[in-house]
Every structure is written in C-alpha cells, then in structure tokens.
Amino acid sequence: MNQTPFSMPNPSLYTEEDVAQLVHTFYAKARKDPSLGPIFEAHVIDWDAHFVQMTNFWSAQLRGTSRFRGAPMPKHIALPELTAELFERWLQIFRQTTEELGNPNLQQHANAIASFIAGRLWQGYQISNYPDKQPIALRTL
Length: 141
Ligand code: HEM
Hints:
The two termini are about 20 Å apart. With about 140 residues, the protein is mainly α. The chain has helices spanning about 15-30, 35-45, 45-65, 70-75, 85-100, 105-130. It comes from Nitrosomonas ureae.
C-alpha cells in the first residue's frame, strides 16, 4: 500500500524505537481485546514476523523508509467476517495507544494515517466481499 496523500513522512521527528514502541504497545492492547484478539490469534501464525512487518509498515508511513513489502488490501479482504465495528474498535485502540505514547506529533500523524487506511481497507473489504451492497462508511473517521 502506498503512502497516504498527506502528512509527509519525517525521519527527524520519530525514531525506529518510537515506531517499534507504537507497534508493540498497540498489539499488547489489541491481542487482549475481546473482539479483535481472537482474530489476530487465529490469523497471525508468526508473531515475530508480524511485528517486523508492522514495524516496517509504520516506519514507511511515518519515517519514509522503504523496507515494507506487503499487500494489506488482499490480506484484509481475505479475513472472514470483518465489520465496521471491528475497524472502529481497531481505530479506538490505536488512538488510545498513540495518546499514551505522549508524542503529540506522532499521535496526530499516525492517527491521521490510521484513519485514512482503515477507511480504505473497510471500503475495499465491502466492495470485494459484498459487491451487491452499498458500502457503509466508518463512523469514527
Ligand atoms: C478490523 C481491523 C483489522 C483487523 C482485524 C486486522 C487484522 C490483521 C491480520 C490478522 C493481519 C495478518 C494477515 C496475514 O498475515 O495474513 C493483518 C495484517 C496487516 N494489517 Fe491489519 N487488521 C485490521 C486493520 C488494519 C488497519 C486499519 C491497518 C492500517 C492502518 C492495518 C495494517 C496491516 C498491515 C500493514 C498488515 C500486514 C499486511 C501484509 O503482510 O501484507 N490493519 N491485519
């Protein structure tokens, strides 16, 4: 997935440690969540590899690095029974995470990217899995 069309990545604002902390803090919460946790546990086979993948993704978005190799859209489209509520919960946990990290630049930047991509993933999910239904927007964008 390409970078979002706003908020230029800026490697002088955040370090790789900031990115790793974002990813690990988010997943510590998401894995414990009653609605999202079981989905991650069912579909993430190798957590070390997933952390590397997610750190590379957020490093690309926030710092402009180019290590990320992936295909988020087809991977999410393939997950069974995703809903608007699950995406909204994902965003809620993500925003709690960035608030806790106490870095206002990172909070604003990462939240904007997460909202944008969540909306795109959910739209792509609906178009692919429910082509005959009118797509619905996320309430928390
Ligand atoms: C309901 C919300 C979500 C759920 C349940 C979810 C779940 C998952 C799962 C299970 C995987 C691993 C898939 C696999 O390796 O086969 C994954 C990968 C990933 N997710 Fe999500 N996700 C959600 C929302 C998001 C959002 C909003 C973003 C970005 C802001 C995101 C970014 C990614 C990325 C970058 C990957 C790696 C894709 C790849 O390896 O190509 N996810 N997600």
